[in-house]
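Lab channel / #folding
Pinned by the channel admin:
"Please post every new chain as: sequence first, then the C-alpha cells as a reply. Keep commentary short and put observations after the output so the thread stays searchable."

First post following the new format, from NK:
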Amino acid sequence: MLTTPPPPVDIVAHFEWLREFAASAIRLHPRRAASMPVHVSKMGGLFFWPRSVPWPVCHARDAEDLFDLSRPEKLDELKVFLGHAYELQQLSGFGAGSSREPVRNWISRQLDEVHELARRGRHGHSQPYLPLLQLRREEFSTLPYPADADLFQLLWCPCVHCEGPPNEPPGFLAFWRREADIADPLLVEPPKTDGIDLFECRLNAEYITEYPVSASFEAHFREDLDQWHEGGAAVYDDMLSAAPGVKLFGYPRWVGDAATPFCICGRMMKILVTIDMDEFGGRGGSVSRWRPVEEPEPDGSHGFSIGDPGALYLFHCPICPGPRLQATVQTA
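Reply from TO:
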C-alpha cells in the first residue's frame, strides 16, 4: 500500500466555497514488476487479450501524407483547416492556443510542428498500439463498465495524431470485455515501439480527495487564492489541488491550458484516466508533497513517455451510453 502525504494546509477551512468542488480520485501508483499474470490489473506488459484477435496497429497518416505539403495549394488547404480548428477551440473554451494569441501566430506554430514530423521521414504511423492500462471490475468497480463487461483495456498510439480529418484512426483504443469470453489468451507481448519504453507495472490503488486547478475557477475565486498566501494560486495548484501521476477520476492536472472537451451531446465531459509522465509533480512543483510516505527515495517511473514531458487525458460522457470517450494529449 502506498499513501499520499496529507496536505500541508486544510484549504477548505480557508475557503468554504471549495467544498462543493471536492472530488474523489484514485491514484494508481504504478511500480515496475516482472512477469505479472496476464489477467490482473496493471500498466503495460502482457494484457488478457484474445489470441484470435490481432493486436491493433495504427495506420493513421502523418500530416505530410494528409495534406501533401510539397504542393502549395495543399499547404494552403492545411492553413485553412488549422484556422477552422483554432476557431472551434476558442468558441468551445478549450484548445491549443490561448484566447490572447493571434490566430496567425497559432497556425504558424502548428505548421512548424507539421514540418518537423515530415522532416523525420516516416510516412504513416504503422505502429502497434501500446498496452497502456488494464483494469478489472472486481478492483475498480466505479469505472463506467457497459452491461456485463468486467475488464477495461486502454491502448495508445505512440505517434502524434492530427485531430480533425475524417476516417483517421484514433490516437487511443478502449475495450470493455468479459473475462469469461477470453478462453484462449495471447501469451506473447505485442511488438515494441522504437524509442518507447513502457515497463510492466503493478498498481497500488489509493483513494484521495482532489480540487480543480485554479485556472478552472472564475476570476474572483482565483483572486481569493492569490491573496491568501505568498505564491497564491501557484502554491494551491502545486500542493493542494489535483495530484500528478497515473490516476482515475478526480481532476486533470493540466500541463498546458485547460482543455476539457465537450461531448457531441453538448455536455462537458468528465476525466476518466490521466497518464502523467511526471508521477510526483516534479515539473516545477514539489516532489515531496506527492511522493508516497512509504517511499522516501522511490524509483517510481513507469517509463512511459511521449517524447516531451506531458500527460494523456481520457474523458468520458457521464450521460451518453457506450460510454463515449475522447482523449487529449498535452506536452510541456
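NK: DSSP finds seven helices and 14 strands in the chain.
TO: also worth noting, The helical segments are 11-14, 63-67, 72-92, 103-119, 219-228, 232-239, 287-290.
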